[in-house]
């Protein structure tokens, strides 16, 4: 998986990000599509992730709003579909160039896709497994994680809800495995600091989250 996302020599970084982003979108869309009939406003009144996590949608004014999971995911998929079909953002013609904001747009897409994956694990894993698609979901998560690890696309604060799964699927080293208790303590306080910082950044950049 790690080799899969390494940028091949001579290939443009944006080009590479674009192809992985589009592939991830297709895979997440496919898995969610198979269980979407179980994701209803009454069954999933909140956009949940593992461990009581609830994702709030940022409306056009950058205001956080609580929406049901199917609504949230519809917003996500519509936004991504619109964005990757936009020739000025995801150029397909040779002469067209990527905008300077391309990487930040990709970061946003990958973060939103992560939310959908998190919801699938938290609320619909049973249905996914019954349909025999859990391997596909795990692979999609592995792909997303590998891409994120390679290019640092998502805040650690976001990915920690699926940290245990990363370890279980051996996508990452168990951070607690070899650290002494003192080291672990340091790491924990460091993580808390980083958390509050990224949180502030998140708040500050909420305006452009339309
Ligand atoms: Zn749901």
From TrEMBL:
Keywords: Metal-binding, Zinc. InterPro entries: MOB_kinase_act_fam (IPR005301), MOB_kinase_act_sf (IPR036703). Residues 173-210 are annotated as: Disordered. Residues 194-210 have a biased composition (Basic and acidic residues). Zn(2+) binds at residues 39, 44, 119, 124. The keyword Cell membrane does not apply. Signal peptide: none annotated. This is MOB kinase activator-like 2. It comes from Brassicogethes aeneus (Rape pollen beetle).
């Amino acid at each position: 998986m790690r080799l899969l996302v390494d940028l091949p020599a001579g290939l443009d970084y944006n080009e590479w990000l674009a192809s992985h982003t589009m592939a991830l979108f297709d895979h997440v869309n496919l898995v969610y599509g198979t269980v979407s009939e179980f994701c209803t406003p009454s069954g999933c009144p909140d956009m949940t992730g593992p461990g009581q996590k609830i994702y709030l949608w940022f409306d056009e004014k950058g205001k956080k709003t609580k929406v049901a999971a199917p609504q949230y995911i519809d917003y996500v998929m519509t936004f991504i579909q619109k964005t990757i079909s936009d020739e000025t953002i995801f150029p397909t013609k040779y002469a067209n160039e990527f905008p300077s904001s391309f990487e930040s747009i990709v970061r946003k897409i990958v973060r939103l896709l992560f939310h959908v994956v998190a919801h699938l694990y938290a609320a619909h894993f049973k249905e996914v497994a019954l349909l025999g698609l859990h391997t596909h979901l795990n692979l999609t998560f592995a792909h997303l994680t590998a891409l994120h690890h390679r290019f640092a696309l998502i805040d650690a604060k976001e990915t920690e809800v699926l940290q245990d799964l990363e370890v279980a699927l051996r996508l990452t080293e168990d951070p607690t495995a070899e650290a002494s208790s003192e080291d672990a303590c340091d790491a924990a306080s460091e993580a808390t600091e980083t958390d509050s910082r990224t949180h502030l950044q998140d708040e500050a950049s909420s305006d452009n989250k339309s």
